[in-house]
């Protein structure tokens, strides 16, 4: 039997764990070619179908639950009915950054206690540097030999094979003292767990009001705030005057920047959700987009 994929487990972790533990299973042979190189869209399709998660639905579910792509796809132009736009039709394209991994020693210890083993979580190297649960600095290099956890350093099986006899869970935890880093980690986690899509149009309207009502005293913060207001107003304006295709093609939708502004404007993601629900009475479940894929011009629903 294939192993059960764990919550937030990275695709690379899932493949490597199967190859290590489950090498007798004939289905694992289908994953063997993925053990090296980048995880491409084709690789995601193969993993999904090997797991029995068929078609576009399974492909997008894996992207959403096990990669960093929610950062690009949850805050969205809701005129787009596909989850990952044309990704399903671009098999050779790689998932960015999927190679870099990091871990929290507290999570590893907790996993070993609860599950008997640990695994690698999907990572957000440009956004998250601490564990949102334990407020501990994530380790992206081995605490024993200093190699990075990527194809240029340790194979991920160091999680299960140990480094010179030492288990990664025996590493000391370093408490994070950077409040902004913790806040960012919590917002990213909450965004990934949010069950609905966030309309970029609604978010811009809410943030425009919110930013104007924020009282930031420091001069530096005031200029930061002004440039955020300008960006939000530009997005709103362009959204209203441009067709869906032009808006997307010109990449005028900036989900990651919008998330930064949400983090700047709110103390907790839930507070943003209260305003969002108030503004947007009919939120679209993210899952309802998983069956659809686009070819750049129109969307198709996959029947599988
Ligand atoms: Zn942790
Ligand atoms: Zn090592």
What is the residue-mean pLDDT, rounded to a whole number?
90
Low-confidence stretches: none
Helix count equals: 13
Largest sheet: 2 strands, parallel
The secondary structure category is mainly alpha
Bound molecules: zinc ion
Distance from first to last alpha carbon: 23 Å
List the helices and strands in order: HHHHHEHHHEHHHHHEE
Number of beta-strand segments: 4
Give short descriptive properties of this protein:
single chain; 304 residues; mainly alpha; two-stranded parallel sheet; two-stranded antiparallel sheet; 13 helices; globular; binds zinc ion
Account of the 3D structure:
46% of the residues lie in helices and 3% in strands. The chain has 304 residues and is mainly α. Strand 3 (292-294) and strand 4 (299-301) form a beta hairpin. Helix 2 (26-32) packs antiparallel against helix 3, helix 9 (200-213) runs antiparallel to helix 10 and helix 9 (200-213) runs parallel beside helix 12 (255-265). The model has no long low-confidence stretch (mean pLDDT 90). Residues 104, 106-107, 131, 133-134, 136 line the site of one zinc ion.
